[in-house]
């Protein structure tokens, strides 16, 4: 989507992603996290051995993210953490890894063709007899039916209570679909609302689950970092034995935990859930290079010409791990770098132009990810609540993290054991007696 259509939809969506509304969702994120903690405590009692429980945390983080989106975007509780198999979870759980990880020859061809054929032709691809296509089509059908039911129910609620508070994304979108709700801006149709809900779900589901899983694995492999984080979290939020945080979590306390922010920033930098960005030149142009680049014949170039219509692939991984930007330890997980470096003072030629912390994860420019604040607060609360309650270590002695590419996504797996699917193999122990 380009031009005025994109601008209009961005303006309609802005109330759902302004800082005040996003902060108001903190209690929702904390309540979902508290349910995860409660369930892990129960599993420790019933399945643990010698006070510890080994678990693939990735699956649980997926469920947590699902519940978080359900509550904050749709205003519903799926019950996935307690074992209910909601149809959306079955449709979207592991969709990216199952569909795009290690594609066969036909899959590789199709993924590349998508980048070069008109959208109206892509719609016919839904009829191809391929497993990946069937998975995507089934997920789309499920989400459309679910979204339409929610839209109709939300519209009834708003009609019964015209002054209903904006408590979730769906409420804001449905209000945006009412005439004159946004004054001179043309309102959203149900089709547009559905598309926005689907985009939000796909963009916020596995991406958040992947980043949080990477963060937990990094903490599990770095006891000193984990302990420092725990001490900060406990000093601000209290220990798990002090009180539950299921109700009344104040987003402002996150500002009092700079090391938590540093850990999340470092997980974002090291493991961007989207590993590259794809762009298309709308006119002939020149891309200037911040540093000269030596090409095959030995000469140096300071810019790259592009023609109208050419695709430009930007490596988010490459920038986030660039030694030019981040120093010689760019490939090391070191949250401390965020406590001493002021991103606002980074030279302009070493800035990516993104909306947050000079990391590429959220894109940049007028089409930067509108939900970056949502993702940041959500992940901060998830990690804080888990580390506050549990001591983490890796459950597999010879474990080596593997970052598996699935189309544009990066998924945590175990090296040489890709067949196991997404992995965050943790051994968890209670830090203190249950609250």
Automatic annotation (TrEMBL):
Pathways involved: Secondary metabolite biosynthesis
Superkingdom classification of source: Eukaryota
Keyword Heme tagged: yes
Keywords linked to the UniProt accession: Heme, Iron, Metal-binding, Monooxygenase, Oxidoreductase
Keyword Methyltransferase attached: no
Necessary cofactors: heme
Protein name: Cytochrome P450
Organism of derivation: Calocera viscosa (strain TUFC12733)
């Amino acid at each position: 989507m380009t031009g005025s259509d994109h601008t209009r939809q961005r303006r309609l969506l802005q109330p759902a992603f302004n800082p005040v509304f996003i902060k108001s969702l903190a209690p929702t994120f904390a309540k979902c996290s508290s349910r995860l903690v409660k369930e892990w405590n129960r599993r420790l009692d019933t399945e643990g051995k010698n006070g510890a429980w080994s678990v693939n945390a990735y699956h649980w983080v997926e469920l947590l993210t699902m519940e978080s989106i359900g509550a904050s975007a749709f205003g519903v509780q799926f019950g996935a953490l307690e074992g209910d198999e909601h149809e959306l979870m079955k449709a979207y759980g592991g969709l990216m890894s199952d569909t795009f990880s290690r594609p066969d020859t036909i899959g590789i061809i199709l993924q590349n063709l998508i980048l070069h054929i008109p959208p109206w032709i892509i719609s016919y691809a839904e009829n191809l007899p391929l497993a990946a296509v069937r998975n995507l089509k089934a997920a789309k059908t499920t989400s459309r039916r679910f979204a339409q039911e929610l839209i109709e129910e939300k519209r009834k609620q708003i009609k019964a209570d015209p002054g209903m508070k904006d408590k979730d994304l769906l409420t804001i979108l449905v209000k945006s679909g009412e005439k004159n709700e946004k004054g001179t801006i043309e309102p959203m149709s149900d089709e547009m609302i559905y598309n926005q809900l689907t985009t939000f779900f796909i963009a916020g589901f596995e991406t958040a689950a992947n980043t949080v899983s990477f963060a937990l694995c990094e903490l599990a492999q770095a006891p000193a970092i984990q302990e420092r984080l725990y001490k900060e979290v406990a000093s601000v939020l209290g220990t798990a034995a002090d009180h539950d945080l299921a109700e009344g979590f104040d987003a402002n306390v996150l500002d009092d935990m700079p090391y938590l922010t540093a850990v999340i920033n470092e997980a974002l930098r090291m493991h961007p859930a989207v590993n590259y960005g794809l762009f298309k030149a709308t006119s002939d142009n020149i891309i200037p290079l911040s540093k000269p680049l030596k090409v095959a014949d030995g000469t140096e170039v300071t810019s790259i010409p592009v023609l109208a219509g050419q695709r430009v692939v930007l490596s988010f991984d490459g920038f986030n791990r660039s030694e030019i930007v981040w120093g010689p330890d760019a490939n090391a997980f070191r949250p401390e770098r965020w406590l001493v470096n002021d991103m606002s003072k980074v030279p302009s030629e070493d800035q990516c132009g993104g909306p947050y912390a000079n990391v590429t994860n959220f894109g940049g420019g007028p089409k930067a990810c509108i939900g970056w604040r949502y993702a940041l607060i959500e992940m901060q609360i998830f990690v804080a609540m888990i580390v506050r309650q549990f001591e983490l270590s890796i459950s597999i002695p010879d474990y080596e993290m593997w970052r598996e590419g699935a189309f544009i996504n990066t998924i945590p797996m175990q090296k040489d054991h890709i067949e196991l699917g997404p992995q965050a193999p943790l051994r968890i122990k209670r830090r203190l007696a249950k609250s």
